[in-house]
Every structure is written in structure tokens, then in C-alpha cells.
Design a protein that fits this description.
Blueprint lengths: L1 H15 L9 H13 L5 H12 L8 H7 L5 H23 L7 H14 L7 H12 L7 H10 L2 H18 L8 H24 L11 H38 L2 H11 L7 H17 L10 H15 L2 E3 L6 E5 L7 E3 L9 E8 L2 E3 L2 E4 L2 E4 L3
Parallel strand pairs: 3-7
Antiparallel strand pairs: 1-5, 2-4, 4-7, 5-6
Helix pairs in contact: 1-8, 1-9, 2-3, 2-7, 5-6, 5-7, 6-9, 7-8, 7-9, 9-11, 10-11, 10-13, 11-14, 13-14
């Protein structure tokens, strides 16, 4: 029953997404995946003919060779190998979902699927959708969620396809007794950490970029930059998807949990164990402001990132969470006042001694309750 609910949730999201949110319709990836999986040996011009017949159109609304290139499938040998791997993953997911313990080794299936779905890096953007396509085509018609899965697979964008595939593997692993069910708090903190990592990755790539002069590039350099831009765009989509899920789940927590539970959740989120996630978002917001003050143009590939950061920080504020101090501010404190901070510096020789410190992280409060203390460091010169 939980699988039905999961697929229905993603189908609803895929149906609801704005038709004009992107120039490239996710359905095109669905059709391209179908064609490549069926005839991976075809050249682009042959795939064009196949797709026009498959989609019932006289002229395709997208460029096949370009889409194959951005998915790292520009050569027949690459497509053949990829089709084999995707087909195997989709079939194993089907076995994992409906196979019996007498026939299949669930642990081995789970390990194989985790390597494909969670561990592999730099996969074609349409790979999650392609695996889902093979999965639902392998399912018997008697499976209750087959038609909903087909529609969700067809309409889902890259981030939604990836999220649905990963959630399916996790949910099936729980049902098979291979993983314990995570608490809402654990799941949310994990999602937030993943979102923050994607944002940091995108921003660090942008701040590390130096040559935007439009100089002539080799074919390999052009391909590298194209792939990097696709990765950035995909990272922004995933981050948006995760933040939307976060807002839904945190509202659920607020409805069901006591205030103490909400406080505990945010304390865990900003603990060292979880990389001080509230502080990290505040730093990311500051970095975006710095880029703009320096006159740096935010590239189209990560234009969504600043709005995502604002979305998260605005959401945190609506929950009653606010920073306690201002990062970068310097102030003089005494030994007794140092108890209000996480202090780093030389030892105190006299209770009346006064030290100049700089605020390294803001600290957070919820209502009148302290979530985490600001971190300060002694200014030595």
C-alpha cells in the first residue's frame, strides 16, 4: 500500500508541474529512452525516423543528436552498453518488488540496485526515467500501481524521476527487512544535507570559474562545459525538489509533534553531526550576496539556487527560527559573557579580562529557546 501512495504522490507532482517551467518537455526524455533502449545500435538519423513514428509527428520538437550528447550517449557502443545496464537494473528492480524469497536473493538485488541508483556518478540525465520505464514494462498487468507508475515515469522531470527511483528502492528495502524505517527527523535532515551539498557544489563551481570571455574552445572542452552545465541544472532541480518535500514534511511534524520535538529536530539539524546545516544555508545566502556585490552574473544553469536559498531561509523564519547573532560582527566579551557562546581562543587569566572576538556562526533560537550558541573566535591582532 505504501508503494501505491509513493507513486501517487510523484504522479501528482509530475501532473502539477508548470507546463512552461522548462523549454524541454520531460516527455521527450521518456520517448528518447524508449527508442534508445529498443534500438541502441541506431544512428541519430535512424532514431529520428523511429521517434517521429513512435510519437506520431512529422517533425520532432527536439534535436536527437544534441540530446544524446548531453546524456553522454553520442556513440552506438555507449548506447549499447548503457541499454544493457539500464535493462538489467529495471529487471532487478522488478524482481526486488514482486519476486519471491524462494527465487531471489533480496540482499544481492538490493546491493546491486544501490550501486546503480545511489553510488554511480555522472550518469546520463535520463537514466532514472529509463530504469523506471523498464521496471513498469516488466511488471505484470495485475500489479495495482502499474498504470500510475507509467504516467509518473512519462511526466516526471529529471529530479522527480531520480527521487521516485531512490524512494522506491529505499521503501522496498524496508519492506524486505534490509533497512530500518527512518524517522521523519532522520529523513528530513538527510534530505536537507543532500540539498545543501548540491547548493554548495553549484556555488563553488561558479566561484571557481574564471574564463567567461567566450574564447574559442576545442570540441572536448565544449563537451566538458556542456556536461558541467547540465550537472548544475540537474543539481538545481534536485535541490528544488528536496526543499519542496522538506516543507511538506516539516508541516507534518508541526501538526503532529509537540514543541519540544520541533526544537529537538532543529537542534539536530544544526549539530556538528549534521554539519551545522542551518549555519551552512546562512553562509550560502551570504555567498550569493557577495557574488552579486562583486558584479558576478549568476549563470542560467544555477539561477534557481539563490531563490532556493531564500525559500529555505524564509521557511525557517516562518517556523519561528531566527539567528541569534550576526556573522562577521566583532565585539568585546568577558569571561561570564563567554558562556553565551562557543568560544575559541586563548584561556582566560582573569574574570574581569575582556577579549575581542569575531562571530563565526550566528547561533539560533526558537521563540525563547536556545537551539545552538553562536560560535566566536578571539581576534588576536
Amino acid at each position: 500500500m505504501e508503494i501505491n501512495q509513493l507513486i501517487e504522490k510523484y504522479r501528482h507532482k509530475a501532473r502539477s508541474q508548470s507546463k512552461d517551467q522548462a523549454k524541454y518537455n520531460p516527455v521527450y526524455d521518456y520517448e528518447l529512452a524508449r527508442a534508445v533502449l529498443d534500438t541502441p545500435e541506431y544512428q541519430p538519423r535512424q532514431l529520428v525516423v523511429k521517434l517521429e513514428e513512435q510519437m506520431g509527428v512529422n517533425k520532432l520538437p527536439f534535436h536527437v543528436a544534441r540530446q544524446l550528447g548531453r546524456n553522454q550517449l553520442n556513440r552506438p557502443e555507449k548506447r549499447l552498453r548503457w541499454a544493457e545496464l539500464v535493462t538489467q537494473a529495471g529487471q532487478e528492480l522488478c524482481d526486488f518488488a514482486i519476486g519471491s524469497t524462494e527465487t531471489y536473493d533480496y540482499k544481492a538485488l538490493h546491493e546491486n540496485l544501490r550501486r546503480v541508483v545511489f553510488v554511480k556518478k555522472r550518469v546520463p540525465l535520463l537514466e532514472p526515467k529509463a530504469i523506471l520505464f523498464v521496471f513498469y514494462t516488466e511488471l505484470p498487468d495485475t500489479v495495482s500501481y502499474k498504470s500510475a507508475l507509467q504516467e509518473a515515469t512519462k511526466l516526471a522531470n529529471f529530479a522527480q524521476s531520480k527521487g521516485l527511483l531512490q524512494d522506491l528502492v529505499d521503501l522496498l528495502a524496508i519492506e524486505r527487512g534490509l533497512e530500518r524505517k527512518k524517522s521523519v527527523s532522520e529523513r528530513l535532515i538527510g534530505d536537507i544535507a543532500g540539498t545543501q551539498a548540491l547548493i554548495n557544489q553549484s556555488l563553488s563551481r561558479e566561484t571557481g570559474s574564471t574564463d567567461r570571455a567566450g574564447n574559442a574552445m576545442s570540441a572536448s572542452e565544449y563537451e566538458r562545459i556542456t556536461h558541467e552545465n547540465d550537472d548544475l541544472r540537474a543539481a538545481a532541480e534536485i535541490a528544488q525538489h528536496q526543499l519542496e518535500a522538506l516543507q511538506e514534511e516539516i508541516e507534518h511534524i508541526r501538526d503532529e509533534a509537540k514543541q519540544e520535538t520541533v526544537i529537538t529536530f532543529f537542534q539536530e539539524m544544526n549539530s556538528g553531526q549534521h554539519s551545522n546545516l542551518l549555519d551552512q544555508f546562512l553562509k550560502a545566502e551570504s555567498l550569493v550576496k557577495q557574488l552579486r556585490q562583486q558584479g558576478s552574473e549568476i549563470p542560467q544553469e544555477i539561477a534557481l539556487i539563490p531563490s532556493l536559498i531564500r525559500m529555505f531561509t524564509r521557511f525557517v523564519k516562518t517556523q519561528g527560527i531566527r539567528p541569534k547573532a550576526i556573522v562577521g560582527e566583532q565585539k568585546v566579551i568577558t569571561l561570564s559573557e563567554s558562556d553565551e557562546y562557543e568560544y575559541t581562543g586563548s584561556s582566560w587569566e582573569d574574570p574581569d579580562e575582556r577579549k575581542m572576538v569575531e562571530i563565526q556562526s550566528a547561533g539560533w533560537i526558537y521563540g525563547n529557546t536556545l537551539i545552538s550558541k553562536p560560535k566566536v573566535k578571539e581576534v588576536t591582532s
